[in-house]
Design a protein that fits this description.
single chain; 35% helix; globular; alpha/beta; 5-stranded mixed sheet
């Protein structure tokens, strides 16, 4: 059996998958924000609890914000900043007394949805997280792609393609640049654009609800958002040409996107047809933990 842990900024969720891919145990606790040692203790405590509940010693995979630097072996690019610069993997392995596999949380989402989620049966899947941030992961022939820099799928920190004049130079991003895709396609990005364009303050969820109720400002905002997302996805399709793009994160629950994106993509994709399908996630919040568990394939679990 395999334990998968989704380490988020506000919660840590763990599951146990059995050989039949069924969830045998599940646990969720608040993340110890700002404290590295408490984060390690919380994860180790969760592993102990899950193994006690299922009555077996399991492999452990963890989906985490950021990535492990191939140069230093330390965490980089994590918005849970207390992890950055730390030997997260070795510290966990020392405490647990076994090998632990780590991957970016968006990579884990992509792996979960490609294995037995919305992208099951597709050769190449681009998994997208559009929530408080924007991330992505690539799965080809059932295997997660990482790359020598450990940044495969990090489309959110490229500039918004084909920007309009009123989109230049773009909002500032926490990475130090301006106009990153994340500043437009994340939930906070939609809310900020709506305020700039209408003078009204609302959350992304409120904007989506207002659009569904027929509010003209909100309806226009969602269409502008969809057009920006279509441009951003087209730049990935033009390079990767995936069979499917699976959307996850809070913004993926905007139902209008699954009508608007197929309509908008052909204007930006360098092809006479666009056969790449855009689908909503199947496993929802569970995808992070499921994908982390799949970091140990069935023939490699210890």
């Amino acid at each position: 059996m395999r334990i998968g842990i989704d380490l988020g900024g506000t919660k840590i969720e763990g599951i146990v998958l059995d050989a039949g891919r069924k969830v045998r145990a599940r646990r969720r606790i608040p993340s110890p924000r700002g404290d590295y040692d408490d984060t390690l203790s919380a994860i180790c405590g969760m592993v102990e609890h899950l193994e006690t509940e299922c009555g077996a010693t399991c492999s452990v995979g963890i989906g985490m914000p950021g990535a492990i630097s191939p140069a230093s072996g330390l965490v980089k690019n994590a918005n849970s900043t207390w992890l950055n610069g730390r030997p997260f993997g070795p510290d966990l392995e020392d405490r647990l007394g076994r090998e632990v596999r780590l991957a970016n949380d968006a990579d884990c989402f992509a792996l979960s949805e490609a294995k037995d989620g919305a992208g099951a049966g597709c050769r190449t899947v681009f998994g997208v997280i559009i929530g408080t941030g924007t991330g992505g992961g690539i799965v080809h022939d059932g295997r997660l792609l990482s790359g020598p820099n450990a940044i495969a799928g990090e489309w959110g920190h490229n500039p918004l393609p084909w920007p309009h004049e009123d989109e230049r130079p773009g909002p500032p991003c926490y990475c130090g640049k301006q106009g990153c895709i994340e500043t437009w396609t994340s939930g906070p990005g939609l809310a900020a654009a709506f305020e700039r364009e209408t003078g009204r303050t609302a959350t992304a969820e409120e904007i989506a609800g207002a659009a569904q109720a027929g509010d003209p400002d909100a309806t226009d905002a969602i269409r502008r958002y969809a057009d920006r997302l279509a441009r951003a996805l087209a730049s990935v399709v033009n390079v990767l040409d995936p069979d499917m793009v699976v959307l996850g994160g809070g913004m993926s629950n905007i139902g209008a996107l699954y009508t608007l994106l197929p309509e908008l993509l052909p204007a930006y994709v360098f092809s006479d047809t666009v056969r790449t399908r855009i689908e909503c996630h199947r496993h929802g919040d569970a995808s992070g933990g499921r994908g982390a568990a799949w970091l140990w394939p069935e023939d490699q679990t210890p």
